[in-house]
Amino acid sequence: MAAILAAARDPDYPARPVLVLSNKADAKGLETAQAEGVATAVVESRRRPREEFEAELQAVLEAHGVEMVVLAGFLRVLTEPFVRAWEGRMINIHPSLLPSFKGLDTHARALEAGVTLHGCTVHWVAPGVDEGPILAQAAVPVLPDDTEAALAARVLAQEHILYPAVLAALAGGARPAQPLPEAALRGWKL
Fold first, then answer.
1. Average per-residue pLDDT in the chain?
2. Which residues are catalytic?
3. If you ran DSSP here, which 8-state letter would residue 178 be given?
4. Where does 7-111 show beta strands of DSSP type E?
5. Strand spans (E) along 61-169
6. For a 10 Å CB count at each end of the chain, is N or C smaller?
7. pLDDT for res 74
8. d(C-alpha 5, C-alpha 8), whole Å
9. DSSP assignment string, 95-113
10. Contacts of 29 (CB under 8 A, 6+ apart)
C-alpha cells in the first residue's frame, strides 16, 4: 500500500488513491495513508456476521467513490457475492508465484518445498483463496542459504515494484490479457 501511495505522488501516475480501509483499527497503513493525505476508514470484522461486515464495507467504498479495490495485506476471505460485485475491479497481491503456495506462510513453504524460484503475483480477485486470473508475476531466486526472512525481504522488494506498475497499467486502460507496458517494466528483473 505504501508503494502505491508513493507512486501516486507522481502527477503522471494514472491512479489516485481515495481511501485506505482496514478491518483493524491499529493497522499501520492507516497512519501511512493519513500522512499522505488519503482518507481512511475502519470497518471492524471481528465478532460480527460476515454479511454485515461486507455490507458496511460496500457502503464505505461507495461513499468514497471507489472505482477499484486494491487489496494489500487484507487477510480476510471475502464472500462470493462481495467478490462478484467487484468483479473486474478488485486486485490482490500475493507473496508467491501462484498457483503455488496459496494462503499463508508462503516463504516457509517455498523453502520447505525446495523450489529454486519464488516471488509474487498480482491477480484479479475471484471467489476462493488467492484465486483469479493472474495479471503479472515477479520472480526471485531462492538462494541455498536463504532464511524465511531473507527470502521474504527479496519478494517484498519485488511487490513494491510490481503492484504499483500493474495498477498503473490497469488505470491506463490495459486489459488483463495484455502484457504490462514497456515503460512499466523498465528496470525489472522478471
1. 90
2. 94
3. S
4. 20-22, 40-42, 69-71, 90-94
5. 69-71, 90-94, 117-124, 134-141
6. C
7. 85
8. 5
9. SS-TTSS-SS-HHHHHHHH
10. 1, 2, 20, 22, 72, 73
Annotation: binding site: 50, 92
In a domain, 61, yes or no: yes
What is the residue range of 34's domain?
Answer: 1-174
Taking each helix axis as running N to C, give the angle between helix 106-113 and helix 148-171, from 0 to 180 degrees, rounded to the nearest 10. Answer: 120
What is the pLDDT at residue 181?
42
Which residue numbers in the chain have pLDDT < 50? 176-190
With respect to residue 151, please indicate whether it lies within any of the assigned structural domains.
Answer: yes
Q: What is the pTM of this model?
A: 0.88
Relative to beta strand 40-42, strand 69-71 is: unpaired
Structural domain includes residue 182? no
Q: How many domains does the chain have?
A: 1
**What is the CATH number for 70?**
3.40.50.170
Residue 188 lies in a domain: no
Annotated binding site for (6R)-10-formyltetrahydrofolate: 50, 92
